[in-house]
Amino acid sequence: MDSIEEVLRKFKLSEEERDGVCLEEEEMAQGVRECELSLIGKVWGDKLANIGGIRSFVGVMWPQVRNLRVVEIGRNLFQFLFEKEKDMDLVLNKRPWIYDGQPLILLRWRAGLEEEGEALSKTLIWIQLWNIPIHWITKEVGRKVGSIFARVEDVIIPQGGGKDDKHLKILAEIDLTVPLPRGIMVKSNGMVKWIEFKYEKCPDFCFCCGRVGHNERSCGRKGLDKEREPQYGNWLRASYPRSPNRKSRNGNDHREDVREESQFQPKRERIGLRIISCC
To answer: What does the H/E/C string look like for 103-138?
Structure first.
């Protein structure tokens, strides 16, 4: 979509074209009302997301949302129009969403959002923080360590009793235009610790440069660091993704419909087996 500057640079406009028209509020009112109950979604990555695949995705992953409309408004850019505010909130509260290995960034509509590249280049993701001394396991430490990211929305202290629970979890907004942080040096009272990051439901990322959205085959850094240790790899993925537990009505812990929605693949990449009884 050309900007005003680009249009003026490319074309010599007539007086009628340059004068244009002026829209009044009431002329946009119906469109604004529809958009106020919508989300703008961007699939971040080199792989093309088509409208058919996205409609299949929402049909499978958001089955409780009725009469949802999906409109393609650009390359890998979609508008999701809802009938009810509570359905929109439900989808937002269950972020992050991953489509075909790529993040599906979802934001509430606001005028001009679809043209804001920076706003649509960040996504929420759960990150496990490992190698933390037990006396550092506090929500305050989680937020301080998470300051390496764009922002921290939540901090969880796992409540199990095994050694696998000796870590923190943060829900952080990450900037997809830069490499995934692998960890951070933390200093306190003369002690220095390397805190490791592991990403839950991690989208596809490049093992050469660490950026989400493309792979090694199309990376400009491929072959440049042959003499160094691998800088990125599957060790950044959490082995067993776990979302925070929520209390059920009877008081027991359970995961509230936290399926592996991040692992959705379009039908073109899914292989199914049909079993036929011969008896």
So the answer is: EEEEEECCCCHHHCCCHHHEEEEEEEEECCCHHHCC
In angstroms, the Cα distances linking 236 to 109, 127, 130, 220 are 32, 10, 11, 21
CA 153 to chain CA centroid, nearest Å = 14
Which residues are paired to 199 by β-bridges?
A: 127, 237
Question: Per residue in 95-152, pLDDT tens?
Answer: 999 999 999 999 999 998 988 888 899 999 999 999 999 999 999 999 999 999 999 9
DSSP 8-state secondary structure symbol assigned to residue 240: S
- Provide the residue type at 185 as one letter: M
* The residue type at 162: G
81 touches 69 (CB < 8 A): yes
Please state, in angstroms and rounded to a whole number, the distance separating the CA atoms of residues 267 and 262. 15
How is residue 274 annotated by DSSP? -
Owner of token pair 């979890």 = 169
What does the alpha-carbon distance between residue 179 and residue 40 come to, in Å, rounded to a whole number?
24
| Least-confidence region, from 7-11, 18-22, 234-238, 242-246 | 242-246
- For 159, phi then psi, to 5°, come to -105, 10
CA atoms of 188 and 167, how far apart (whole Å): 18
- Lookup: tokens for 83: 């009938």
